[in-house]
Amino acid sequence: LMMSSLKQDPGNDVKLKIYALFKQSTLGPCTTPRPGMLDFINKAKWDAWKALGETPQEDARQQYCDLIGSLVSAEGGSVAAKPSGSASAQYETLLVTTEDKITTIKLNRPAKKNAITTVMYDEIVTALEQAGKDNSVLTVFTGAGDFYCSGNDLTNFTKIPDGGVELMAKQAGELLRKYVKAYIDFPKPLVAVVNGPAVGISVTALGLFDLVYATERATFHTPFSQLGQSAEGCSSYTFPKIMGNAKASEMLLFNKKLTAAQACDFGLVTEVFPDSSFNSEVWTRLKSYAALPPNSLALSKQLIRSTERERLHAVNDAEVELLVERWTSDECFTAIMNFFQSKAKL
Fold first, then answer.
1. Mean pLDDT, to the nearest integer, of 13-24?
2. CA 36, 40, 45, 47: dihedral to nearest 10 degrees?
3. How far is CA 37 from its chain centroid?
């Protein structure tokens, strides 16, 4: 009966296919002994893997990526999924508004915890370019819903172009370089209003902001080594400078998640507010800052940044170069596939 139910449930068929492609991608053709007839689950897994025969690992990898991508799209996670609210017609993934001399860039994929797709990367760069030239005094980043940002949308890594993994990594590296450069060169005061948990690039980029205000329920997590990757957003330079080598290493190397209070103690966050009064307190303060002389603020910000601008660009280049190497490594691919595999266990 158990074997029959395994075969009849379409959901299990998909899970078995994911499992088999994962094993074929990482280990090659199945050479393990066949499980006993009464070991129903492991026998079903073995049969699915064995059925792939001599399928090359590269082909299995592509099939795995295609399958994961199709499942995410079916769940409403595709980059074309319409976000909540009424974003300006120019943006699919952001809500960008200007009011009281403050331009607000709101990440607007709340159903996906504001995970950053390749489309969103491009749109944020465009929004920053426009905010740098408009009549606002401050620019604010925040997130829609309960999350600030959950970092990279990992389905970015399932869209392998005709040129293969190497081309995908090169294109992703150039996009990341451009993205971080937009923060380094931003000419006005930049404020992060961290309304919930923050992960990955949304955390590392905070070292390039001028103020970081967080609700007490925010957390800050950079799980790079867990995913076979390395630091970005200039954090390999800014984090040790902000919090010291030991604390920075605990975050960037060993995936330590910080509470808002810890992030504030370490200097990554300017101030933490009670969740119940977070928006009212922060926005009252920001409106008062926006009333300050705009040229004085902008020129002072640029003076502070000028002492490190070239160093930050060099750090960005070095981080991107290492990440491109990481993205083409078997170690990184296996780590990301392990992440997806953990979401689809029988």
1. 78
2. 60
3. 43
